[in-house]
From TrEMBL:
InterPro entries from the UniProt entry: ACX-like_C, ATPase_NBD, Hydant_A_N, Hydantoinase_A, Oxoprolinase-like
Coiled-coil regions listed in the entry: none
A molecular-function term among this protein's GO annotations: 5-oxoprolinase (ATP-hydrolyzing) activity
Positions of the Hydantoinase/oxoprolinase N-terminal domain: 6-178
Record-annotated membrane-spanning stretches: none
GO cellular component labels: cytosol
Protein name (Swiss-Prot/TrEMBL): Hydantoinase/oxoprolinase family protein
Residue intervals of the Hydantoinase A/oxoprolinase domain: 205-497
Record PANTHER family: 5-OXOPROLINASE RELATED, HYPOTHETICAL 5-OXOPROLINASE (EUROFUNG)-RELATED
GO process annotations (BP): glutathione metabolic process
Organism: Paradevosia shaoguanensis
Acetophenone carboxylase-like C-terminal domain ranges (all copies): 510-680
Length: 689
């Protein structure tokens, strides 16, 4: 029997996920298989090969493979990159250290800026200068470059970053310097800022080039080991890496600029949520991903996932963090997941996270030596998770260790273990509600107009409580929710985002220049795809403009449908006013400026097509496993019906209180909520008024 096998793997902080679609080429019917195994730092590729073996996948038969990984973000946050040398414009070596004046701890007189990734003695300058219009003001002088590289070699530098002033407007100086570095020192990893972004903001662009160079050797080694491991197992199909912009790209392209996959895991989940919303007719989606370590959320409007380049790592209330100017899905991330540790501060106040028990030792219930109470332990103790079906029956729940961990928290609070567990759940839920408000209410969106799509190993346990708090239309738990980020990769296109800075007033006569910038960008994008053998007919391009009121600092992005003509300028300006007012609650009677363009070029590469199944008419009672008492924290203890998630079929309906159990996750249905299984196997929950 001829079949097509598509595989997606996603490396998370705790688990590595697998989704396999086997499609019969004659009938078109697909069989879906999922699996999870422990993530294996620092050799993450072992976890990938392990989960493929666990899922019973014959690697030699795979036709399409998509992969998401945390290797880049881990290398950055754990400082496991390489020593970097920076080459920049004469007089600008300290841009990286001066940074921005955006210190969050404003009243701290002893505030210290984050330490730059390149110390001053490894930041070197060359003469040459471009204007902001891209005109050469001072000729490039590379005569001192050999001496600079000799210093770098002596200091053990393994990667070189190049960032020149105004290279976003004209990259020729950077191109010449990069070519000379590769000629004089071919073994070193080297990257120039124009290869990553053509947007202005000198500090952000320079820091992005530095961080890309910092992780490049580690990423190249990882992707090389992964490719070798797959090849040795017989794989000869097409392999793609998930990007932070919700698209996939080839291993070769990603190896050159690995910083583009800094948030590849969350991006695939949110893209999957957008595609799922289109399938079920819910294009306005609040997407929530709760894993073992973190919870992440994003807002999807009219089926579009918002992509931004104002992305920072390690930014919090006490640190400004570090900017990365690459296309990243607009998300909020907090340290609240299944493994988040509950703790009591010196004022007897209970907290949950951001510290995590991780995969090892993990929650106390895992029985691997963990002695800290986590969100998972609280869910288990309250009967929300089945102690006799823990981790899909693969792990025997250590209830004694769970009780001991929860009792330790309870003793500090002066309550019993039950009350401590309820408190942990309520605080974790509150943290997640606040994160969801940041991407909705705080940006001018009413959650009541949205559907909450929750996934990840912990999403289904908390989703209904969060949805009730926010007042969303309904809650949807996707089929295969625990490995949904991997499923999202199956729905992704080969995608690249192009940003070009172009300053100008949005007034009569401006259309020709704007259209020229778009046309040049599209020609460049199509040429790149064509050079990689992609059929030009398959390439789709979306246009966005970045606008602002005159003399403002930051921009608002507007979709531009079709060519920019003089007749359409007024409509484009009106769209900007409307978008700006929705986000900031007001509009100004001020001239509008264009700051730049954003092009999204994409092409389908084995994208999955989902088929809807008809209702079988089988009653939900056929999937009933039994009953047990479940503590719903706010609604008290109720006897809940327990359903086997693997036996649910399209058309089945029932009401809460109920629990749905499958090997990857547990769905907690609160009293009064209605459940329906749709034609794609998703669990749609209508909330009680």
């Amino acid at each position: 029997m001829a079949k097509t096998i598509r595989v997606a793997t996603d490396v998370g902080g705790t688990f590595t996920d697998l989704v396999v679609f086997e499609t019969d080429q004659e009938t078109g019917k697909s069989v879906v298989k999922t699996a999870k195994s422990d993530t294996t730092p620092p050799n993450f590729e072992k976890g990938v090969l392990n989960v493929l073996a666990k899922g019973g996948v014959d690697v030699s038969e795979i036709d399409f493979l998509a992969h998401g990984t945390t290797v880049v973000i881990n290398a950055l946050t754990e400082r496991k990159g390489v020593k970097v040398g920076l080459i920049t414009t004469e007089g600008f070596r300290d841009t990286l250290e001066i940074a921005r004046g955006n210190r969050p701890d404003f009243f701290n007189l002893h505030y210290a800026k984050p330490e730059p990734f390149v110390p001053r003695f490894l930041r070197r300058e060359v003469a040459g200068r471009m204007s902001y219009k891209g005109e050469e003001m001072v000729k490039l002088d590379l005569s001192g470059l050999p001496a600079i590289l000799d210093i770098f070699k002596a200091e053990g530098v393994e990667a070189v970053a190049i960032s020149f002033l105004h290279s976003y407007a004209n990259p020729t100086h950077e191109q010449a310097a990069l070519a000379e570095v590769q000629k004089l020192w071919p073994e070193v990893s080297a990257v120039a800022s124009h290869q990553i972004t053509r947007e202005w903001r000198e500090y952000e662009r320079t820091n992005t080039a530095v961080l890309s160079a910092y992780v490049q050797p580690a990423a190249e080694r990882y992707l090389g080991r992964l490719a070798d491991g797959l090849k040795q197992s017989g794989f000869d199909g097409d392999a793609y890496i998930m990007q932070s912009n919700c698209g996939v790209d080839s291993i070769e392209a990603v190896s050159r600029i690995p910083i583009t996959m800094v948030e590849s895991g969350p991006a695939s989940g949110f893209w999957g949520a957008a595609e799922l919303g289109k399938l079920i007719g819910e294009t306005n989606v609040l997407a929530l991903d709760i894993g073992g370590t973190t919870a992440k959320c994003s807002l999807i409007e009219d089926g579009h996932v918002k992509i931004m380049t104002d992305y920072w790592i390690e930014r919090d209330r006490k640190s400004a963090g570090y900017p990365i100017m690459v296309p990243v899905v607009d998300l909020v991330e907090i340290g609240n997941g299944g493994g988040s540790i509950a703790w009591v501060d010196e004022h007897d106040k209970l907290h949950v996270g951001p510290q995590s028990a991780g995969a090892s030792p993990g929650p106390a219930a895992y029985g691997r030596g963990g002695d800290k109470a986590t969100t998972t332990d609280a869910n288990l103790w309250l009967g929300r998770i089945n102690r006799d079906y823990f981790c899909g029956g693969e792990v025997v729940a250590d209830m004694a260790a769970t009780e001991k961990a929860l009792s330790g928290v309870a003793a500090k609070l002066g309550v019993n273990a039950d009350e401590a567990a309820r408190g942990i759940i309520r605080i974790a839920n509150n943290n997640m509600v606040n994160a969801l408000k940041l991407v909705s209410l705080n940006r001018g969106h009413d959650p009541r107009d949205f559907t909450l799509v929750a996934f990840g190993g912990g999403g289904a346990m908390h989703a209904v409580a969060l949805g009730m708090e926010l007042g969303v239309k309904k809650v949807v738990i996707p089929t295969g929710a625990s490995v949904f980020s991997a499923w999202g990769m199956m729905m992704s296109d080969l995608r690249r985002d192009y940003f070009v800075t172009r300053l100008g007033n949005l007034r009569p006569g401006a259309a020709e220049g704007i259209e020229k910038t778009f046309a040049e960008g599209e020609a460049h994008a199509r040429a790149q795809f064509a050079a990689e053998g992609i059929d030009p007919a398959k390439v789709k391009v979306l246009r966005f403009g970045k606008f602002r009121y005159q003399n403002q600092e930051h921009t608002t992005e507007v979709l531009i449908d079709g060519p920019v003509t003089e007749e359409r300028l007024a409509a484009i300006e009106a769209d900007f006013h409307q978008t700006y007012e929705r986000e900031y609650t007001y509009r100004l009677k001020a001239p509008v400026e264009i700051v730049g363009i954003h092009l999204v070029a994409s092409a389908e590469v084995g994208k999955l097509t989902m088929e809807k199944r008809a209702s079988t008419g089988t009653p939900a009672s056929s999937a009933l496993k039994g009953e047990r008492n479940v503590d719903y924290a706010l609604e008290g203890i109720h006897k809940a019906a327990i359903y086997d998630g693997t036996r649910l079929e399209p058309g089945m309906t029932f009401a809460g209180p109920a629990i749905i159990e499958d090997p990857g996750t547990t769905v907690v249905i609160h009293p009064g909520n209605r459940v329906e299984v749709d034609g794609f196997g998703n669990i749609q929950i209508t909330l009680a008024a």
